[in-house]
Design a protein that fits this description.
mainly alpha, 5% strand
Length: 79
């Protein structure tokens, strides 16, 4: 990971992010397409903005878990 002056500008590669998050490279590519993982548009190599991407991934996981929890409560009430 390359950390310049600002943490929000730290970049990494898709392969390293996949290792950090314990995901496949294919899943990282999907997350890039879904705009969860953010590319550094100023980087010619298309590196990933590490901080924004990890934050977005974490928040997307939280909202997914919250949806599942709410669906479980609805099923319990109707069942």
């Amino acid at each position: 990971m390359e950390i310049p002056g600002e943490l929000s500008e730290a970049t990494t590669t898709q392969a390293k992010l996949a290792r950090y998050l314990e995901l496949s490279k294919a899943r990282i590519t999907q997350l890039v397409d879904e705009k969860v993982v953010v590319r550094d548009e100023s980087d010619a190599k298309g590196k990933i903005l590490a901080f924004d991407s990890v934050r977005n991934y974490y928040l997307s996981q939280q909202s997914s878990e919250r949806r599942q929890l709410l669906e479980g409560k609805r099923l319990a009430r109707t069942g």
